[in-house]
Design brief:
Order of helices and strands: HHHH
Shape: elongated
Number of domains: 2
CATH class of the largest domain: Mainly Alpha
Radius of gyration: 24 Å
Oligomer: single chain
């Protein structure tokens, strides 16, 4: 028996589904009409209400705050690595000068 493939929905589909719910239709009715689970639609609605501007960024795309955090962590990792290299170089050169 083959494993079930996870269905993927684009941002436009999610936004339209959430818009239907926000316009007064029940989550259960909209989910049934669209052929999706009510819990999935409820989660989409919750995500939309938390951050309307950046809801459903898509795979591989981060919200601006998350992207900035990723870049800062990378920069910290790079600077820490450079510092460690310089410390080792200082130790090597201080031994040679004696």
């Amino acid at each position: 028996m083959e494993p079930l493939q996870r269905r993927k929905f684009d941002t436009q589909f999610k936004m339209e589904a959430v818009r239907l719910v926000l316009n007064g239709k029940s989550i259960k009715q909209v989910a049934s009409d669209l052929g999706i689970g009510a819990s999935v639609l409820a989660r989409w609605r919750r995500e939309y209400l938390v951050d309307t501007q950046h809801a459903f960024p898509g795979k591989g795309h981060l919200k601006p705050e998350d992207e900035e955090m990723r870049q800062l962590k990378k920069q910290l990792r790079d600077v820490t690595e450079e510092r460690d290299i310089l410390k080792k170089a200082m130790a090597i050169f201080s031994k040679q000068s004696r």
